[in-house]
Amino acid sequence: MQLSEFIKERLSLEKYSFSTEELYTAIEKDKKYVKSDLSYLTKKGDIISLRKGFYLIIPPRYSKQAKLPIELYSDNLFKSIDRPYYIGLYSAAKFHGASHQQIQRDYIITSTPTLLDIDKGAINLRFFTISKWPRKNITTKKSDAGYFKISDSVLTAVDLIYHQTKLGGINRMLSVLEELIEEIQVSDLRDLLKWYPHKSALQRFGFLLEELQADEKLTSILFEYIDSNKFYPVLLSPKSNQKPGAVDNKWKVDVNIKLESDL
Length: 263
Known about the structure:
This protein is α+β, with helices and mostly antiparallel strands. It has two domains: 3-62; 70-254, no CATH class. It is 38% helix and 18% strand. The strands form four sheets. Strands 4-5-7-6 form a four-stranded mixed β-sheet. A three-stranded antiparallel β-sheet has the order 1-3-2.
């Protein structure tokens, strides 16, 4: 089998990516010649070398954008490096209908150790690594290329809040949070509270739920959980040189920024 035949076969199966391991298993040519063919098709723009040993196939309908939607290759990418993952943050919010914030990059959460971000032409992938892997709140969705993993609406919301300092701050994401909150199910929140480790993010989340006039069921369940243990004042927007001052809300959140949604 030639490389061109291999790619044609992949596309016929709605597979838009491959690892060199998959390629060498299927192809009979000497590796030296395969590398030459890969280099040629990369220069043509038919394939993109995403990272060492992993390629994207760019079919004609995506050639103008010179990139693929993340859901078409994320699962195969992380199988190739044998790590857990889920599409998260703004990328996940888009799938949940909270697409008010236009993003130029894709966000994926994976386990430690750190995975280097990828910035190649139109493709911009940012990886966030976490040490405590979620026991719940990761869902599986179907794309044209198979299945992919994504955070549910409540995990997406608290992830945004937890990582706010790396994502432009609360005000940048406030409109997205407002839209996400409408999608949150009570059962998903209960699932989150069974494992989620960052109480300060939950306090900020509870405060924002009230500010954004979410379903009272959500706020009462969340506050009951937080209030069942000791909790301490936190800044709404974490600052390395600032400590929480006086608080005037039950969530003990020091509102140190003016909230301004652009919705």
